[in-house]
Amino acid sequence: MNLILKIMLSAVAVLILAKVLPGVAVDNYISSLLVAAVLALLNTFLKPILVVLTLPATILTLGLFLLVINAAIILLADEFVSGFTVDGWLWALIFSVLLAVFQSILHSVLKKD
């Protein structure tokens, strides 16, 4: 139940960011739910593999390379979900940072309850 609520809150965050950022577009709430679910799956299965494979670059950049990995996952979700578009690396990077901030805020509200 908690996982479903987190995905729904992430979908709301995706919708809000798509309205605010001009380089990101989402068609409707169903597409944002799909984006949230795909991002959850990619972050669960693909991100740990990418982090291990790029560990030297992550260490050399003091962790900043993780932002590139997050942007790549956003662009990969763009390829999987047809109602979601991101215009490039810069918008994917901005979207991933803001999405992490929104999710942190929304999930902290969820933890208090």
From TrEMBL:
Record bears the keyword Transmembrane helix: yes
Pfam families for this protein: Phage_holin_4_2
Record keywords, A-Z: Membrane, Transmembrane, Transmembrane helix
Superkingdom, natural source: Bacteria
Residue ranges of the TM segments: 28-46, 53-77, 89-110
Record protein name field: Phage holin family protein
Species of origin: Aquimarina hainanensis
Phylogenetic lineage: Bacteria, Pseudomonadati, Bacteroidota, Flavobacteriia, Flavobacteriales
